[in-house]
Amino acid sequence: MGEFFAEIWTARAQLAEGLLATIEISAVAIFTGSALGLFTGIGLVYGWRPLRWLLRFYVDVVRGTPVLVLILATFYILAVFGVQFTAVGSGMFALSLFCGGHLGEIVRGALQTIPATQIDAGKSVGLRMPQILLLVLLPQALRQILPVWINTAVEIVKASTLLSIIGVGELLLKTQEIIGRNFLTLEFYTFAGLLYFLVNFSIERFGRIVERRLALA
Amino acid sequence: MTYTFNFNVIWANLDQLLSGLALGLALAFFSILIGAAIGLAAAFAATGGSRFLRGAASVYVTAIRNTPLLVIVLIAYFALPELGIRMGKLESFVASLAIYAGAYLTEVFRASLIGIPAGLIDAGLSIGLTRFQVARLVRFPIMLRNALPALGSTFISLFKDTSIAAAIAIPELTFQARRINVDTFRVVEAWMAASILYLGTCLVIAAGLRRLERHFPKF
Amino acid sequence: MNKHTKTFILCVGSLILGSGAVQADKLADVLARGKLIVGTGSTNPPWHFRDEAGNLAGFDVDVAKIVAKGLFDDAEKVEFVIQASDARIPNVVTDKVDITCQFMTVTAARAQQVAFTLPYYREGVGFLLTKDAKHKTYDELKAAGAAVTVSVLQNVYAEEMVHQALPEAKVDQYESVDLMYQALNSGRADAAATDMSSLKWFMKQNPDKYLDAGYGWNPQTYSCAIKKGDADWLNFVNIALREALSGVEFATYSASFEKWFGEAPPAPKIGFPAELR
Q1: Does B4 reside within a domain?
Q2: Residues B160-167: what's their mean pLDDT?
Q3: Which terminus of chain C, N or C, has fewer Cβ atoms within 10 Å?
């Protein structure tokens, strides 16, 4: 056990770098993916018909394909078409697409539970559609989807481990590098698992707190 | 940039892709079987009278749901042998996926158990059934029906999660697509084929489940 | 804003604006860029791994630095791109990297997809023994026949491979390298069959505890790989490597070889160039 702690101390910079990369990659993917998901959800409900088809195709493909396939496909296909993404870039891109597709479907579901009469009511008081969306529909939808959104954030952090396979130096790859050097397989994989747990558990707790606040408001 | 499609390589490797798909389905099937058993036990524990069991179930669900599947898979395959637990590739992957699925299914079963009206349980007890008989004859079948849609979607996610088996070189669909990608460099075709196979399989499973749900009317 | 976020924004930007020019003259491009982009791994000592300070180290890394030194007279002008083994060919073909140096086994099939440089190492399999082993040489192992147990890393061909050297030995396959060594240390195995490079590295890491049975088989050649169709670039890399193996940069190559494998490579013979004989 003493050896393990000594090795953790030796590897502290690598572990910190990996953890930060994981958090940053996840944050960017969640942020970009949320924007994409919001747009997709709104487009699926209120969009122009060809746009709806296009978005439906995007959502179905993303939801029916494993995220690892999405990551590998993005990584290799973009390069074939001459887009020189780094591994980190294409990883974030794939995770954003993944996040956007799942959230799009969730936002669509939430928007469709809001009675259409509210749109009519909005129009009758002289609001235009974008205003109705922003002031009437989205606030209700967002409150509804918050728990699922938090869930998606946890899924993104977990999915970010798959980027180790394309060579992104996030927490899991850093862990594997450390294991490659000192062979403390059980100890370091368990330690990485613990770090992931702490990140996700914090997200979950944070979500609960926000949820309670919103419920009171 | 121009890219000329050439699907010959997909046809030439179609049997490997399909056998990869079948392997993925089999892995998902065994995982959900074992996972459902774990989930069932944990759900009864979580809704039961013992505080210790409730706590244990909650720790299990929280710990597993917040840990990446790939990390669980790597621990099971590379690290557990250090503790003397040696499993083959397939067994260790199914065990990992089952434990992972078990946590999600605990929640599914727990919600379905809570959804059973208390009156039904009282009715069972009043006609002289024991607590165990009520669990087996009343709560279990109703719970199963209530859980059917969620069980179905869990199976679909598990099937997609079998792609992670590629990380320990289990020759399922993603592994095969990656091999074609690397061997022949028909990048777009390989990933298109894999996506279509995954997507198609998910759609077929989803359609089958809808029929099954219609077949068993909801309580 | 952190570097990953920046790269991401740059990447998405390049996606929207349409991307880079077609590579025509790699040597000129690399020189103009001022650094060499090398694909390698980060989890396999002594080839490519992170040392305790978190820096990439290993024999592959040193070979890449030799090429960089040839280009810029500065071995540090290298950017390493970490890639999985199966990304070695794709990343070269799609210009993600200028060259791959990642213990890549030369095969005729692979040579249809990439251009291989001159080899810089010949890998093989050998037997690692503990110092106090019952059988201390290959001949003794072979003579012991079925009484010998060999631990080996799990692989479809592992058993066949061991039996090429010891036809009667019992073969125990393990899931990871450390487990394989543990089997040897605990006496569950009489010998561990592993890559000669790993074997040498392990002996160097643990001095005076292990023996090499003195037999190597199952040869495979390691070379760097570059994109096909650029003769100037291939020629340049080849010259840089050849002169490291047998010319002005031999001291660098030799020091690195000794650092990772615990022994010096044979010195080039002075006089008539051996490769032209």
Answers
A1: no
A2: 96
A3: C
Q: Which residues pair with C223 in a beta bridge?
A: C104, C119
- Give the burial string for A161-186 (b: 16+ CB within 10 Å, else e): bbbbbbbbbbbbbbbbbbbbbbbbbb
> Does the residue B6 lie in any domain?
no
Closest CB from C22, C89, C175 relative to B182: C89
Q: Does domain C23-114+227-276 have CATH number 3.40.190.10?
A: yes
Q: What is the mean pLDDT of chain C?
A: 91
Q: What Rg value do the Cα atoms of chain B yield, rounded?
A: 21
Fold classification of A2-216 (topology level): MetI-like fold (1.10.3720)
Q: Are B1 and A159 in contact (CB < 8 Å)?
A: no
**pLDDT confidence band for C16 (50 / 70 / 90):** low
| B5: in domain | no
Place of tokens 């899924």: A155
Positions of chain A with pLDDT lower than 50, given as ranges = none
**Number of cross-chain residue pairs from A and B with Cβ atoms under 8 Å apart:** 110
Do B189 and B6 meet the contact criterion of CB atoms below 8 Å apart? yes
Contact A80 C50 (CB under 8 A): no
Contact B93, B73 (CB under 8 A): yes
Write down the H helix ranges in A11-125: 12-46, 49-64, 67-80, 87-113, 117-124
Q: Say if B78 is an interface residue toward chain C (CB within 8 Å).
A: yes
Q: Which of A15-29, B137-151, C184-198, C209-223 has the lowest mean pLDDT?
A: B137-151
CATH number for the domain spanning B106: value is 1.10.3720.10
Contact (CB<8Å) C179/B81: yes
pLDDT at A216: 66
Of B62, B191, B198, the CB nearest to A76: B191
Residue C7 in this model has a pLDDT that exceeds 70:
no
Per-residue pLDDT at B107: 94
Binary contact (B68, A157; C-beta < 8 A): yes
Q: What percent of chain C has pLDDT over 90?
A: 77
Question: Which tens digits make up the pLDDT trace of B80-98?
Answer: 988 988 888 999 999 999 9
User: What part of C 169-208 touches A (C-beta under 8 Å)?
Assistant: 176-178, 181
Instruction: Kindly calculate the radius of gyration of chain A based on its CA atoms and give it in whole angstroms.
Output: 21
* Nearest-by-CA chain A residue for B68: A158
Q: Where are the domains of chain A?
A: 2-216
On whether residue B3 sits in a domain, the answer given is no
Considering its fold, how many domains does chain B have in total? Answer: 1
Residues facing C150 on adjacent strands? C171, C191
CATH of C128-219, one of 3.30.70.100, 3.40.50.1110, 3.40.190.10, 3.40.50.970: 3.40.190.10
List of chains touching A (3+ CB pairs within 8 A): B, C
Domain that includes residue B194, residue range: 11-215
Q: Domain segments of chain C: what residues?
A: 23-114+227-276, 128-219
Residues 6+ apart with CB under 8 A from B161: A66, B28, B69, B97, B100
Q: Which residue of C has its CA nearest to A182?
A: C178
Task: Using CB atoms, list chains with 3+ pairs below 8 Å to chain B.
Answer: A, C
Contact between chains at A66 and B198 (C-beta distance less than 8 A) = yes
> Residues A191-203, buried b or exposed e (16+ Cβ, 10 A)?
bbbebbbebbbeb
Complex prediction ipTM: 0.93
**What's the pLDDT score for residue C19?**
45
